[in-house]
């Protein structure tokens, strides 16, 4: 979309997943909800835990998002507040935060601990005020590259699309509650 607040991403990827939502809540409330990683288990049906950790994956005492911090995520596909069924219902991801801009309301992280030629991903999230409605617009995109991105796309592409939609919907619901 031409009025997107996401940065342009290079063409060097195999596939991408995106979602967006208009949220009837102040941008600062949505931003605070998005970066309150310890509370994800209370509302996020896709990313059930989002823990800042050391590069060796030990949890950090300070869970404040910052560039260079590592994240260990536990995700449910399909998104559920309970335990998903199936062998691949619960997955994890290990990433490093590459961008936090509170003024522009943008955050990004990329895959860590895996050779980029094998699998790499980069996820961006951005908030802006929709000029027409005055609501907060949430946008997210993740691009996947490397040899295993083809496998990821084939086996998990549709599940990731559903999961990203659930993330946007539950962020909206949580932000509009407060």
How many distinct helices? 3
Q: Rough shape? A: globular
**In percent, how much strand structure appears in the residues?**
25-35%
- Give the overall pLDDT as a whole number: 94
Q: Detail the poorly predicted runs.
A: none
> How many discrete structural domains?
1
Rg over alpha carbons: 16 Å
* Strand arrangement across the biggest beta sheet: 1-7-6-5-4-3-2
CATH superfamily: START domain
CATH topology: Alpha-D-Glucose-1,6-Bisphosphate, Chain A, domain 4
Tell me about the largest β-sheet.
7 strands, antiparallel
Secondary-structure element series: EHHEEEEEEH
- Structural category: alpha+beta
List keywords for this structure.
178 residues, alpha+beta, 25% helix, 3 helices, Alpha-D-Glucose-1,6-Bisphosphate, Chain A, domain 4, seven-stranded antiparallel β-sheet
Could you characterize what this model shows?
This protein has one domain: Alpha-D-Glucose-1,6-Bisphosphate, Chain A, domain 4 (2-Layer Sandwich). Helix 1 crosses helix 3. Strand 5 and strand 6 form a beta hairpin. It is α+β, with helices and mostly antiparallel strands. A 7-stranded antiparallel sheet has the order 1-7-6-5-4-3-2. The protein is built from 3 helices and 7 strands.
